[in-house]
Amino acid sequence: MKLTIIGTGYVGLVTGACFSEMGSHVTCVDIDREKIDNLKKGILPIYEPGLESIVLNNYQDGTLRFTTHLAQAAKDCNVFFIAVGTPPGQDGSADLRYVLEVARQIGSVIEDYAVIVDKSTVPVGTADKVRDQVSQALEARGAAIEFDVVSNPEFLKEGAAVNDFLKPDRIIVGADSDRAAKLMRRLYAPFSRNRDKMMFMNVKDAEMTKYAANSMLATKISFMNEISNLCERLGVDVENVRKGIGSDSRIGYSFIYPGCGYGGSCFPKDVKALVKTGRDAGFAPTLLEAVEERNNLQKQVLGDKVINRFGPDLTGRTFGIWGLAFKPGTDDMREASSRVLIRALLDAGARVNVYDPVAMGQAKKEIPAHEQEKICFAQDQYTALDRTDACILVTEWKTFRQPDFKKMAALMKARVIFDGRNQYDPEEIKEAGFEYHGIGREL
Ligand code: UGA
Questions:
Q1: Which atom of ligand 1 is nearest to the CA of 156?
Q2: Which of 36, 104, 157, 397 would be a feasible disulfide site paired with 328, CB 3.0-4.6 Å?
């Protein structure tokens, strides 16, 4: 099949690459010429394991193309994926400017029946707005072309995006016509061969499913973070509690890891947007508001622990931070807990050394210049600990899992570890001569 994907961000690029890998002919369109030129040279705008080789191979085979011209891509194509950004507006709602502009453009280029797929995460009711834009553009051309708008939310995780796309748990399709539903079934057939993973529903249900899924996962995390705070104050080890409750199959082990808060481009944005949608609909979504509030507070927990331990004035102290990305497997720094921690330490007068195996370049782009003056970007994880007062683990990359404690002890000024992701066994750390501070394991 022939597809056009508009937007070569995270979702768009992975979607395009994976469809081409499964035999579809895909053209990815983006208005950013530099991005498109780079993609043609095999330079990807994001770090994502496994994506580069798929892009390179399929580009060389000619099944994956890149262009800035939507009209060119639209020739003989009847499936269009909208995968542009929906950044949060000032009030938390998803900004649909780019989605609606692309819808208008699609309406001005389609030549025959087309299915227009909302792949971006968009609030309930967006498909109707997309439909209006396409209709208006068609009317302006005096063209009477039939089309359908479909909601097909994406559930891939950064760092595991290719695998998640190629082997999805489920494929949600919100379609209000049989014609569109059939076309979507054909399109996804290669991904749904061993077991039927397709779930059809109406468009609004699909739009809501995406927000409900992310909000549920964010709720699990905030719930567990809340429990971890209680555990700290009651002399309980949250890690035992996590295992204890996870063994109940109704609860399960996933997404109940306490830590220093969830980040990334999805959970924070989607929970906010759903709160706004609820409020706009005249409903007070108190649980979702609490999920967000807990998360904002949780991002401050590591900084608070450092200040509890060393006092409010950190002048003359240096801290080594392990991990900057919002989670392992990505260079994404959006809404990362490391940002909140760095700011808190700098505000209290400290200096910080940072190391991340992948996100150093991204960090240099995103951390403001006035903060960078007091930050040393270390060459490796051990250099980051040179003459530091403590090591603070923020992102649980594998390389931090079993460090050389002897080497650390020799380098550091004080032997203190703040474990923001409960990666270490406190006993082992204490035996290695370190003072240990985890999440939900002590006050
Ligand atoms: C999330 C969802 O997991 C995907 O299903 C969804 O498609 C995606 O958002 C999206 O909407 O595009 P992602 O943001 O890539 O994926 O990252 P996750 O792996 O879900 O992690 C999010 C955050 O939660 C990270 O900061 C992670 O450290 C934190 N987390 C996760 C915890 O603190 N505890 C946990 O138990 C799990």
A1: 7
A2: 397
CATH no. of 211-297: 1.10.1040.10
Q: How far is the CA of 2 from the centre of ligand 1 (A)?
A: 31
Ligand 1 atom with the smallest distance to the CA of 221 is 34
Enumerate the β-bridge partners of residue 342: none
Which residue of the set 28, 77, 260, 266 is catalytic? 266
Asked whether the domain spanning 211-297 has the same topology as the one spanning 2-200, the reply is no
With a Cβ cut-off of 6 Å, ligand 1 is lined by 121, 154-158, 214, 217, 221, 255-257, 259, 262-264, 266-267, 326-327
DSSP 43-109: --SS--TTHHHHHHHHHHHTSEEEES-HHHHHTT--EEEE-----B-TTS-B--HHHHHHHHHHHHH
Check the annotation: does 400 bind a ligand: no
Model pLDDT for residues 52-98, shown as the tens digit of each residue:
999 999 999 999 999 999 999 999 999 999 999 998 888 888 899 99
Query: Among this protein's residues, is 260 annotated catalytic?
Result: no
DSSP string for 411-439: H-SS-EEEETT--S-HHHHHHTT-EEE-S
Report domain extents, the chain: 2-200, 211-297, 299-437
Which CATH number applies to 299-437: 2.60.40.1730, 3.40.50.720, 3.10.20.30, 3.40.390.10?
Answer: 3.40.50.720
312-329 residue pLDDT tens: 999 999 999 999 999 999
